Amino acid sequence: MKRHIDWRQLDRHLAGDASAQDHSVREWAASDPRVERGLAALRRPDSEANAPPPSEWDVEAALARVRGRQPSAEAVDAISTPATGGPRRLAGRTAFAIGALAATLVFVVFEASRVQPRAAVMKAGTSVATQAAERARVRLSDGTEVVLAPRSRLHVSATFGGRTREIEIDGEAYFHVARDRERPFRIAARGTTTEVLGTTFVIRAYAGDSVTQVAVVEGSVAFGASATPSKERAVLAAGDVARLTREGVTVRKAAALDSYTDWVNGRITFRDAPLTEAVARLERWYGVTILIHDSALARRRVDASFGAQAAGVDELLAALAAAVGARVEQHDGARVLIPARRVAR
């Protein structure tokens, strides 16, 4: 027999906020041991003392654990949508619980941003920009191909194609630079200069970030602060990732580049990324506002890779929240990540 459940009560029940009036979920759980086991599997202690160590803040591992503890299909059959009521917004933990109980959260996938049609060859002195949830593929007059990430801007200098090839980037872009030994290709980005002859690489240089990064896919580039003489800039080879902060340039050799390049093909990947960085990227890709309500939570790190078939930002945030011991609420149009409350046993 199917039972109608108020999803808001289910959310409060899982979060430990249920009141005396929220009795339907308790009655539902008491009516079938399988349901109680399924709900119990989704309850998590949330205090900082009980949070998993950083090495366990892994979204993919969290989803694997969910898959391993899903209740039987018979217990799932007890769930159905309410008979009345219009459209509703589900809180993050409720959305995640429904997915787990219904055994449909096999994996959470990333919703691919829109891709602008390929533009005509960009002329010297022109610019192109993307909005949130939008990418753009462009070609420069020398044959260089560029893919712009969401909320990014590319400007081609008025002298492009003369003795040098110079452009400016604000945001993130993937470059496949046409080889030309006679005319170096220079990119200015937030006080840095990257110079190449012909290669493939990614620059990440958003105005709000405290660090500018370059990841080299093939070939080599010279990278450093614009004030640094060319001969003193760091020379990067394929597999290198350079980061420029106020303290200077650091280079990581033989780095995993998927977190820098996957977005070009509609995937988003985090590798040991601070939650603040993951949230900032999701805001750009989905065009939403996401806040983190706790400084300790903001410092946690995540590992995840999501494919291009759409699941939506709410499902993705629910999975991230489950991995780092948090939950999602919505306030004034923003999605807020909050440390999960301890649930009484």
Low-confidence stretches: 1-5, 44-57, 62-112
The SS-based structural class is: alpha+beta
- How many strand elements? 21
Work out the radius of gyration: 24 Å
Q: Could you tell me how far the N terminus lies from the C terminus, measured between alpha carbons in angstroms?
A: 27 Å
| Average pLDDT over all residues | 76
Structure description:
The protein is of the alpha+beta class and 345 residues long. The protein folds into two domains: 191 residues, 3-Layer(bab) Sandwich (Phage tail protein beta-alpha-beta fold), CATH 3.55.50; 146 residues, Jelly Rolls (Sandwich). It is built from ten helices and 21 strands. The strands form four sheets. Strands 3, 4, 5, 6, 7, 8, 9, 10, 11, 12, 13, 14, 15 and 16 form a 14-stranded mixed β-sheet that branches. It has a three-stranded mixed β-sheet with strand order 18-21-20. A two-stranded parallel sheet has the order 1-2. Strand 9 and strand 10 form a beta hairpin. The longest helix has 12 residues. The protein is elongated. The two termini are 27 Å apart. 39% of the residues are buried. The N terminus is likely disordered.
